[in-house]
Amino acid sequence: MNAAQIETPTVADFARTFRRIQGEIHKVIVGHELAVEGLLSALFAGGHVLIEGVPGTGKTTLVKVLGTALNLSFNRIQFTVDLMPADITGTRIILTGEDNRREFSFQSGPIFCHILLADEINRATPKTQSALLEAMAELQVTVAGKTYRLPPPYFVMATLNPIEMEGTYPLPEAQLDRFIFKVSLEFPDEAELIRIISSTTGPEDAGIEPIFTQEEAAGRIEALKRLVREVIVAPAIEQYAAKMVRATQPSNSRFTGERRAAPADEMVNHYVSFGSSPRGAQALILGAKVRALLDGRANIAFDDIDMIAPLALRHRIMLNYAAHSDAVDAAQVVEQVVKSVRPARS
């Protein structure tokens, strides 16, 4: 369907579509309400998402269900230590034509889809991990000097396994920063386990109904993403997001170039090596815009920033040895930062 034929969605359209997609996903995915909402928020904010969870919590199923509900193409790549960049992006091969002339032909890799699951991305080498960077940032792939565009919308979900860390390659800070949010799939409680058993061992599977037709899917999603960008942000909100991100930097950080005195400084200075980059502020604003639309508003409130802060900032805060020694995690640091900046509201 032509972009010009797609009607401009309203705030009510956004919230209705978002909740319908959630409903279809939860026909199969038991629990994980906050994770699914964070995942969809990342999609409509135009970013990519990291998913952390132990095996069996539904990471692969989640991407399949999302692709089916949106009527978009999806692929899964199992990252292993012997995976090469060409296995992801594709490569050029020599083909012989009818006239016996040989020429190079590009064979696209699994990265060419709308929704990509990069499963256990930290099991591949940094060289292979970096093959995703150009695709995530610029929606294109360059092979042998030629650039190939990726079909919008393009959404990468990369999973991290928090156990079995031997033989893994932790993502560099710069690559972690490329993901707008990080969500966690918690282990299900007893009631959720019973629902999982009942729904996955019976004779029938839950039927997922696509929200869009195949012809309109990409255009409709892109229109909803443009609507997110149009949400109004007051200067005071921008200042609030900026203060929050700066509060994640220790006072001796070489990036800020100055010392500060803030209520969060004691915890940040003691446990944080490096705080969030400016991309963290962008993630706060974009995620808050999605939350505003879900609440039926065309403008961001302070509470929207507070609610999105854990998703947007946790993976952007690099902790030091003292934090690991004292069992302090990034979520606790973000919580303290939010509390310390909150009184500064005007």
Description:
- Strand 3 (90-96) and strand 4 form a beta hairpin.
- The longest helix is centred in the last third of the chain and has 17 residues, at 278-294.
- The protein has 346 residues and is α/β, with parallel strands linked by helices.
- The protein starts with 10 loop residues before the first helix and ends in a 5-residue tail after the last helix.
- The chain is built from 15 helices and eleven strands.
- It has a five-stranded parallel sheet with strand order 2-5-8-1-9. It has a two-stranded antiparallel ribbon with strand order 3-4.
- It has helices at 11-25, 33-45, 59-70, 85-89, 126-129, 133-138, 173-176, 190-200, 217-229, 235-247, 265-271, 278-294, 302-313, 321-325, 330-341; strands at residues 49-52, 74-78, 90-96, 102-108, 115-119, 140-143, 146-149, 155-160, 181-184, 272-274, 318-319.
- The model has no long low-confidence stretch (mean pLDDT 82).
CATH topology tier name of the largest domain: Rossmann fold
Average residue pLDDT: 82
The parts where pLDDT drops under 50 for at least 5 residues are none
CATH superfamily of the largest domain: P-loop containing nucleotide triphosphate hydrolases
Please summarize the sheet with the most strands.
Answer: 5 strands, parallel
Portion of residues in beta strands equals 5-15%
- Distance N terminus to C terminus? 46 Å
CATH class of the largest domain: Alpha Beta
User: Helix tally?
Assistant: 15
The count of DSSP E runs of length 2 or more, i.e. the number of strands, is 11
Q: Could you spell the SSE succession in H and E letters?
A: HHEHEHEEEHHEEEHEHHHHEHHEHH
- Which outline best applies? globular
Query: How helix-rich are the residues, as a percent range?
Result: 40-55%
Q: Class by helix and strand content?
A: alpha/beta
